[in-house]
Amino acid sequence: MNIGEWIRCAPVEWLDAEAIAAHSLGVTRSQVLAHPEWDAPELALEMLLQKRLTGMPLAYVTGRKEFYGRDFVVNPSVLIPRPETEVLVEAVLPLLAPGMLCVDIGTGSGVIAITLALESPETCWIATDVSGAALRIAAQNAHALASPIKFIRADRLEALAARSVDLIVSNPPYVTPGDVRLQAEVERFEPHIALFAKNGTSFIRELVHDARRVLRPHGIVAFEFGAGQSGEVREILCDLHHKVVPDLAGVDRVAIARL
Ligand SMILES: C[S@@+](CC[C@H](N)C(=O)[O-])C[C@H]1O[C@@H](n2cnc3c(N)ncnc32)[C@H](O)[C@@H]1O
């Protein structure tokens, strides 16, 4: 069978079939589309297809996800990077200046720290996570993308000295356990430590509390939060200069506060 026929017959969405075909051949999607006559590596395709048919997200099946125009390695020990997080990156970029010491808390696959470090090369970056498995993926991505980041395994901001940091950025766990809006595929396959916080905003509350200790005067804390959490977030930040930024759908998703 050739790859074009395989894509047409695969019992998954067309785009998923194309991505699986491209991954199994080690080429891009457009190369697959340009060469439907290529032989289909049927055994490799079947293994990937079976994984997708269990409901496993495509990014875990192919082991890759694009973020801010770059290709990142992912596996089930890290959250799959989301487009909302690109809004956080866009909001933080104009705040960066040469020489700033910046920290990404809960770095997962490393997308935030790596992207910001590459986009603003004169800033210095530390990235932390409690998950050793996540940090291994983040380090692999940093190496592949030539982004010099110092990775530390630590709980929240515990590894950081008082008044030592200029900017803290985080996409923290913010889903309330039992939230019915969470897709079944997400709950089943993505790491629960990356998703859930006791009452949704509990991690954010602790992050902002700890940021007051760790940030230098006029330091900045920026983070993503869940749809519907804007009111609580504004209350957490009420004594700081802050602003809230909407995502592309117009839903408040990112907060930036300055000490
Ligand atoms: C929502 S994910 C974000 C991952 C990545 N930054 C991104 O935006 O795709 C949250 C991350 O926080 C980490 N995490 C959870 N609890 C933590 C804690 N107490 N201290 C540090 N990191 C934590 C998880 O392991 C996970 O990688």
Please sum up the structure shown:
This protein is α/β, with parallel strands linked by helices and 259 residues long. The protein folds into 2 domains: 52 residues, no CATH class; 184 residues, Vaccinia Virus protein VP39 (Rossmann fold), CATH 3.40.50.150. It contains 12 helices and 9 strands.
N-to-C CA distance: 62 Å
How is the largest sheet built, in terms of strand order? 5-4-3-6-7-9-8
What structural class should be given to the helix and strand makeup?
alpha/beta
What is the overall number of helices? 12
Heteromolecules bound: S-adenosylmethionine
Cα gyration radius (Å) = 20 Å
Q: Describe the sheet with the most strands.
A: 7 strands, mixed
Give the rounded overall mean pLDDT.
Answer: 97
Query: CATH topology of the largest domain, which one?
Result: Rossmann fold
- The count of strands amounts to 9
Q: Briefly, what CATH class of the largest domain?
A: Alpha Beta
Number of domain modules: 2
Q: How would you name the CATH homologous superfamily of the largest domain? A: Vaccinia Virus protein VP39
**Beta-strand residue fraction:** 15-25%
Helix content: 40-55%
From the spread of the alpha carbons, the general shape counts as: elongated
